[in-house]
Amino acid sequence: MQKLAILLGLGILIFSQAALAQVSEEEIRALRAQIEMLTQRLDELERQSRPASPSSPQAEAATGAASMDALADSADAKIDQAVEAEVDEQMAALSWAERMRWNGDFRYRYENIQTEGEEDRNRSRIRARAHLEADVTPTVQVGFGLATGGEDPVSANQTIGGGGSKKEINLDLAYFDWSGLADTHVLGGKFENYLVRPDKNGLLWDGDWRPEGLGIAWNNGRFFAHGLGTWLEGDSRNGTEFAWVAQAGMNIAFGDSGNLLFGAGYNLFDIAGAIPVYGDPDDFYGNSYVTDPVTGDLVFAYDYRQVQAFAEYAFRLGGQPVVLFADYVVNTEADENDTGYLFGARYGSAKARGTWDLGWFYEKLEADAVVGLLTDSDFGGGGTDSKGHVFSGTYAFHDNWNFKLTYFLNEIELASDDPRDFDRLMLDLNFKYK
Fold first, then answer.
1. What pairs with residue 384 in β-bridges?
2. What are the distances in angstroms from CA 390 to CA 115, 156, 251, 321, 364?
3. CA dihedral in degrees (172, 373, 362, 251; nearest 10)?
4. Which of these, 116, 158, 327, 377, is most buried using a 10 Å CB contact count?
């Protein structure tokens, strides 16, 4: 009994839950070996200390040794089971943690806006985004994200001030991503825009826009094809508005550093006669509108069936990466002001500590070339019916921290008889984590 009590006491002490949380599997195996050695030593001591029986010392010694061996085996088996169960539980907990990933970013911005005929505007703004992704199975992920800002579909910026008032946090992402087929992702919910945008330009889509619906993306490294069905308004009580987007293209490598990406797309927004899906009743973001003769509401004058062509060529020059890019779109349903285009260049890459880049592009976006709600919210103050230059420069203080300057030299209200100048300076501190 003394031996059994010692063994059980050692088992409880060594393999308690608190201790197990701190030891590795190698340490557990070492402790098991020590227990086996201790058991053998206790057997030897017990045989030496047990008084001999006058009747049958050999038989009693054999019986006692067998009994103690059985008790030791039973105790060791229970200890093994407890150890294995605890290790399995800890491994399961570790696996659960490894299946979840956080990433996000924070931006602090100062901007100055000068619009002809209006007072200059200065403001400081913040943007914070956090995204959690979890593996449900090896081929299924779900994601959830929050961001600052209001309900604007193309901006997560939040102007600071208001006496230190609390700021809004909104749902930015909520989706599933199935990758059960080779080179393919099927998404549903509210997810990041995966459509190709040369140099991440905003001619058709603002970088903060999150499609809401279903999508499929296929890319084998050389060819790619994307499809998207997104709700602009998904409640039938408000009049459903659905859009279809398709895009395809390819990559061609040239030598060690050259790569040409090009493709085409077709986007279908049947919204002629519909009221605005976001904002005030007269918010058309540069698009043409008319008055509905029955309801008296202001409604879109055209559908938007957009044919797109785009290209991006990347190579190296003077030891630095260079990107040349262009994007073109025409709305086949508009009678006039139906075209948009953009072309530009970027030299350098501000991704690693101490690196930098310089960029420039020229853009012209006529009033009914694209859906104004979804285009770049910074160029020309947002929406369509604008043109001009954009200059930028970025310096990376760290791999995950940089400073960026952007200057917009634009004209707005092109379709009117009297276009106005629009200048915008943005100074950004950008931080990201994952």
1. none
2. 16, 21, 27, 20, 11
3. 60
4. 327
CA distances from 6 to 11, 33, 70 (A): 9, 16, 15
The pTM assigned to this predicted structure is: 0.79
Strands in 351-400 per DSSP E: 356-365, 386-398
What average pLDDT does the segment 53-74 reach?
55
Could you give phi then psi for residue 401, rounded to 5 degrees?
Answer: -150, 125
Q: How many CB atoms lie within 10 A of CB 21?
A: 10
- Tell me, rounded to whole angstroms, the distance of Cα 418 from its chain centroid: 42
State the span(s) of the chain assigned CATH 2.40.160.100.
111-433
User: CATH classification of 111-433 is 3.40.50.720, yes or no?
Assistant: no
In degrees, rounded to 5, the angle at the alpha carbon of residue 292 between the alpha carbons of residues 290 and 295 is 145
Contact 175, 143 (CB under 8 A): yes
Q: Give CA–CA dist 394/353, Å, rounded.
A: 12
Closest CA to 211 of 236, 180, 245, 238: 245
What does the pLDDT look like over 275-288, one tens digit per residue?
Answer: 999 999 999 999 99
**Beta strand ranges found along 156-296 (DSSP E):** 158-159, 169-178, 184-190, 212-219, 223-233, 241-254, 258-269, 289-291
Q: Are strands 140-148 and 100-115 parallel, antiparallel or unpaired?
A: unpaired
- The CA distance from 63 to 50, in Å, is 12
Rounded to whole angstroms, the Cα distance separating 50 from 291 reads 108
What pLDDT, in 10s, does the model give residues 132-174? Answer: 999 999 999 999 999 999 899 999 999 999 899 999 999 999 9
Distance CA 317, CA 319 (A): 5
